[in-house]
Amino acid sequence: MADKQVIIKPAGRALLLAVDSAQLRRDIPEIKSGDTVRLYVKVVEGARERLQPFEGVVMRLRGGGVNRNFTVRRTTHGVGVERTFLLNSPRIEKIEVIRHARVRRKQLYYLRGLTGKAARLKELRPLTSKQLAAKEAARAARVKVATVKETPVTSSDESTNEE
Predict the structure, then answer these.
(1) 112, 89 in Cβ contact below 8 A?
(2) Residue 159: CB atoms within 10 Å
(3) Are 102 and 113 in contact (CB under 8 A)?
(4) 70: number of Cβ within 10 Å
């Protein structure tokens, strides 16, 4: 009994990858920890089905492929509510990213102990076209200065400098 081993053949692995890739959704935006998102979740009540919005901060992302999931936290009437959703679930109708925040860690469990203004995250705002142009010009200037400083001094340049 102990000598029986399960052998996964390459063809079987390819079949699993094909099935997994067929289940992945293409309409999902890129989300990260700290993003504020609004989800529209299908809720079944008896024979009726309706969309229920759920808005909150993404606390963590886990897993990979079809099993990728994320936890969203919101505070309602002073009570924190966390829900975990499968990213590729057919129960999620739509995901909207409302704002991005600057966070320094992947899992934001420390938000559970914070309330009110302390629970706010620093918002990342997209750059305007003028700001992007200024940033590109500054980068080009830095590159130009760096290339000028790095030019090697040849022996013919040294001899002319001594005279």
Answers:
(1) no
(2) 9
(3) no
(4) 22
The identity of residue 73, as a single letter, is R
What's the predicted TM-score (pTM) here? Answer: 0.68
What does pLDDT average to in each consecutive run of 10 residues of the chain (163 residues)?
68 81 87 94 94 95 90 91 92 93 92 87 84 89 81 58 51
Q: What is the C-alpha to C-alpha distance for residues 52 and 92, in angstroms, rounded to an integer?
A: 10
Residues 144, 7: Cα–Cα separation, whole Å: 58
Residue among 1, 20, 102 nearest 63 (CA):
20
Q: For residue 96, which amino acid is it?
A: E
How far apart are alpha carbons 131 and 129 in whole angstroms?
A: 5
Tokens 């790095």 belong to residue: 150
Query: What residues pair up with 53 in beta bridges, in sequence order?
Result: 40
